[in-house]
Amino acid sequence: MVNQKHYKALYAAFDLFPTSKGASTHISHMARYLFDFYGNGLLYTLGNETYPDFESEGNTDIIRFSKRIPHYLNRAFEYSHHLEQTLRDHHEIKHIHFRDIWSGLGIFNSDTTAKTLFEVNGLPSIELPYRYPNLTRATLAKIEKLEDLCLSRSSHIIAPSGVIQSMLMSRGVSQYKIDIIPNAADANPKFEDQDNLPENYILYFGALQSWQGIDTLLKAFAGLKDMTDLKLVICSSNRQKVSQPYMKLALKLGIADNIIWQHQLDKPVLNTWIKNALLSIAPLRECSRNIRQGCSPLKIYESMACGTAVIASDLPVSREILDDNLSGKLVPPDRPQELSRAIRILIEYPKLRQKLADNGLNYIQTVANWDQIKNKLETVYSTKL
């Protein structure tokens, strides 16, 4: 049965929502800003057996595509088809914000007359080969054509970093069609007391994709075995089984007993782990996903918001956020010994570590918090759509 409610705006994302992943945090903020600006809206996302297919809260209704289809591309195209039909049933929608080409395909196939904002955090032609290495060049070429369609037909585009903007311009998108709206963090994050925190630990939190550089971090931590009271805490946003290859590597490196694994923590609990860490590590790899495409790592912003000093790989995407030795420490990517050295120095010099933490926190409070992102996004809505 068709939902008879009339919506002013739609936010679409080919992502499970909500989850503990950074994408879910981003979706939550961006969709709320969209619906607050236009009065109400429909959030269209992926679902599964644990979430209702339809949910309503305040000015937001959520429709989740929950059909179980194992093959990624088959599921993506079926999601697009279902979104297309949803839009045909709700032709009154005049403002659409979407964050992936599978949403874009459904939107543009629906013949909607709505103004469209494409939020480009990444492109599947670059990211999917890391997840599905057997994808053929011909399949990737077809995906690139879909990307070009969405880039050309969208009314406007936002990107979270200058690196992504440059990549899109290399694909033929005009610079004037793209606004950079970086990621951010809550200026006043919520915490939940924990009684199981080790006394001294460094932290990685987030997803465990290969481009995150977890193997580099584990090898770097192996170089700190003499610091016998130091723990490495890994708070994974993935299910435990995704951690298994890294657990095996830790065992091989002889550091398994000094690693604490946490999985899919609620945000206030995670924030407490971040706040009490000596350091937060973002060991991004030097690879096409991070160099050619780019990103805007939420883990860096959220670490600074919790008052924790950050060590990150010295890549263009990190330099857009951190000033080396001022608001964070940058180290060459994929160099475990360099990362070990930086960790050791910042642990042994607490005043330097505190300076980085204080400057990072100030950056969030004055420049990179979600309230300021809301203002930037509202400017795009009012002037570009």
Describe this structure in words.
With 385 residues, the protein is of the alpha/beta class. It folds into 2 domains: 9-184 and 370-384, Rossmann fold; 201-366, Rossmann fold. It is 44% helix and 18% strand. The chain has 15 helices and 14 strands. It has helices at 22-38, 72-89, 101-109, 124-131, 137-153, 162-170, 214-222, 244-253, 267-275, 288-293, 298-305, 316-319, 336-348, 350-366, 370-384, and strands spanning 9-16, 41-46, 54-57, 60-65, 95-98, 115-119, 156-159, 178-180, 201-206, 231-236, 259-263, 279-282, 310-313, 329-331. It has an 8-stranded mixed β-sheet, sandwiched between helices. The protein has a 6-stranded parallel β-sheet with strand order 11-10-9-12-13-14, sandwiched between helices. Helix 7 (214-222) packs across helix 13 (336-348) and helix 11 crosses helix 14. It starts with 8 loop residues before the first strand and ends with a helix.
